[in-house]
Predict the structure.
Amino acid sequence: MKFTWVKWSTLPVVVLMAGSMALAQDQSGSQSSGQSQSSPAPAAQPAPAQKPDPSIAQRKENQQDRIANGVKSGQLTAGETAKLEKKEAAINGETKADRAANGGKLTAAEKAKINKQQNSLSKQIHTDKTNSNTAHYGNNKVDQRRENQQDRIAQGIKSGKLTAGETAKLENQQKGINQQVAADRKANGGKLTTGEKKQINHEQNQASKNIHQKKHNAATQATPKNP
């Protein structure tokens, strides 16, 4: 009789413990389910921003740097450089006129036209730098001075002290001197007479003064700011 009472008295305790365990499992499962439902999905990675196209002014500066490097290396002859800079001067003049007519800005159509012209000039720079024409300089005084003049012009282009128009004129002058040197040497078995050397030196003195004057006047390449 005593055993029966103990057995029945412990039954509610067992039932209560079982119910508590089940409730705890339900709460744990509900929390786990709630967490999985409320967890945000991983954010999608943003697409990389596209690099903006260079501005008209920046592209002009890039073209001038390429020309300067070609002059410095001898890949561009004086004649080739003069033609390239004449084209660059024309593009610059057109850009300036368009901006003056539109309150300092360029229309979309004007930008597209100028960009097309710069594409054409870029191809010409590449062609002239990679063709068989190169500026050859010897170890003699005449050729060394020709190389020095080209180096000064290249530095002026690179620094912006020489505009495209100024460079075209200076390189045309160098082209004339180079043609005279070539003709004199051809007529004298590859050499220059004392009189010819004196004449060429005089012409290079004039060219040197022109380079100095144009590098130190008020005209400079515009700094790339506006598109």
Q: What stands out?
A: Residues 79 and 179 are 10 Å apart (CA to CA). Residues 2-38 form the longest helix (37 residues). Residues 56-215 form one domain. Helices lie at 2-38, 56-73, 78-101, 108-130, 141-159, 164-187, 194-215.
